[in-house]
């Protein structure tokens, strides 16, 4: 049996009781290690689970899924995923391959940033399409997510921005030379995301866009979330301009651009800001 | 300390290890009992947790929140919520009151249908605004969610429909007489939701709407989900027309109206249908 087990968001104890039982009875336990991270390392998980974990990086899962699945034919195998198993496409792919090979599988759900983002007080029902913001380089600055944010804010909806993670990436030089030397992991901060977002509207203005036509401006209310679900979780509500210089500490970060606000949402966000003028210009529901 | 603890979706063992520890050390443990249900009853939870649970219905939470909070001033109190604590506004309200009374609180996240719905294979990133479908009566048929679905499908996005739950509701007669006699609980099925959805487009057609202008038609692909996260979870992908006569068994149900589909999404949905013609007319991403 193949078990795909969500680990939740904070530390080792965020696993469910059901998930822990499954890990402890599994003969092999893989830890997915490239779409997200917990606030604790592999060793802390191994100690708590009482099991050795096999790190499954992108190469392994994409190229050696057969090995993982072959094991699951004859014994219990767990594949551990930070958050919930259905946050990333890769796990769907593993599940489809299991089904093709007629290997029974079972999914153990857990919290994901996709629902836990609600802890900032913005109602999940009022979110539009989620967007992903990737690291820009000097000559590669994709901004296709801007139109999605615009479509959301036009409807008064909040936008959850998932921020880029670069794990086990090769420099272009090493890639060209075929050298498997990896860059240190990088995680986009809410501040950096805010800077990229503001750079986009600068460009729109140069192209002739009026401020009233923009998806957001420097004054828009946004919420930065860091290490959601852990003991040192941090949430800050402020303007996009101020977010560019707000340090939320270590990863992972998320950023939400607020749409229209319900008075209860304003009340909740007030817990996370010291800027009492923040809500002066927001549209209330 | 007030702990607001998510229980996840299936049975007693879907609680996190952290959540279980919190419950076991709490002096009082309340079980929220009106926005959702687990597939097991209060007794099964009490046995597994080794704690007596106090059922907290809508009356109690809205009118006697002070009692819950007063207890939390001097000792550890847990307030248990099916799914994740931030699925419903009421829990936000409790948290705000705790903050006002300067009572420290802590939130233990868990899976919610808002993220676990991804188990049907539709990518969470491709969902638009979530809508709620309420039980219609003969003379009260609200359909304001239709425009939201239209806005989603116009953008090719999926729509997650949360289905109505009526727990501890009074009949109008008993309400008028001030009698606290409650109707048996009712949970909307995916079939009933599909019937209401199709009634709306019948009305739109009478009003002159062309099929190409509708948010969906009888042939639209939809996915019914029942008891997500439990051992007898059921997922069926079919047309909205066929969903009206599809019995998914006991509650809770959810319904998703598909937008444009990624080939990987089609492949996943194929696991949940015996209708091979289902995807003939869908727009692929």
Structural commentary:
The structure is a homodimer of 285-residue chains. With 285 residues, the first copy, chain A, is of the alpha/beta class. The first copy, chain A, folds into two domains: 2-111, Cobalt-precorrin-4 Transmethylase, domain 1 (3-Layer(aba) Sandwich); 114-270, Tetrapyrrole methylase, C-terminal domain (Methyltransferase, Cobalt-precorrin-4 Transmethylase, Domain 2), CATH 3.30.950. Chain A is built from eleven helices and twelve strands. Chain A has helices spanning 17-25, 42-49, 58-63, 65-74, 89-100, 113-116, 145-154, 172-176, 190-206, 240-243, 263-270, and strands at 2-6, 28-32, 54-56, 77-81, 105-108, 131-133, 159-163, 165-166, 186-187, 221-226, 234-239, 253-257. Chain A has a five-stranded parallel beta sheet with strand order 3-2-4-1-5, with helices on both faces. Chain A has a five-stranded mixed beta sheet with strand order 6-7-12-10-11. A two-stranded antiparallel sheet of chain A has the order 8-9. In chain A, helix 7 links the parallel strand 6 (131-133) and strand 7 (159-163). The longest helix of chain A is centred in the last third of the chain and has 17 residues, at 190-206. Chain A is globular, with a radius of gyration of 21 Å. Chains A and B meet through helix 1, helix 5, helix 6 and helix 11 of A and helix 1, helix 5, helix 6 and helix 11 of B.
């Amino acid at each position: 049996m193949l078990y795909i087990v969500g680990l939740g968001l904070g530390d080792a104890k965020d696993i469910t009781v059901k998930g822990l039982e499954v890990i402890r009875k599994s003969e092999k336990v893989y830890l997915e290690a490239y779409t997200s991270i917990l606030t604790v390392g592999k060793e802390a998980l191994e100690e708590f689970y009482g099991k050795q974990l096999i790190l499954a990086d992108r190469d392994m899962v994409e190229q050696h899924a057969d090995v993982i699945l072959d094991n699951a034919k004859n014994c219990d195998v767990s594949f551990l995923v930070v958050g919930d198993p259905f946050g990333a496409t890769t796990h769907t792919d593993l599940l489809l391959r299991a089904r093709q090979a007629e290997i029974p599988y079972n999914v153990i759900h857990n919290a994901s940033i996709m629902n836990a983002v609600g802890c900032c007080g913005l109602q999940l029902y009022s979110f539009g399409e989620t967007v992903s913001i990737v690291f820009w380089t000097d000559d590669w600055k994709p901004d296709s997510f801007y139109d999605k944010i615009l479509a959301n804010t036009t409807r008064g909806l909040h936008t959850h921005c998932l921020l880029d993670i670069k794990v086990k990436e090769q420099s272009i030089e090493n890639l060209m030379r075929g050298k498997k030397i990896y860059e240190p992991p990088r995680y986009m901060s809410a501040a950096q995301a805010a800077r990229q977002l503001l750079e986009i509207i600068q460009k729109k203005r140069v192209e002739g866009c009026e401020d009233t036509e923009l998806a957001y401006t420097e004054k828009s209310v946004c919420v930065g979330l860091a290490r959601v679900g852990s003991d040192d979780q941090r949430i800050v509500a402020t303007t996009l301009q101020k977010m560019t210089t707000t340090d939320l500490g270590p990863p992972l970060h998320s950023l939400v651009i607020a749409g229209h606000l319900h008075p209860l949402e304003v009340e909740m966000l007030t817990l996370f800001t010291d800027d009492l003028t923040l809500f002066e210009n927001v549209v209330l529901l």
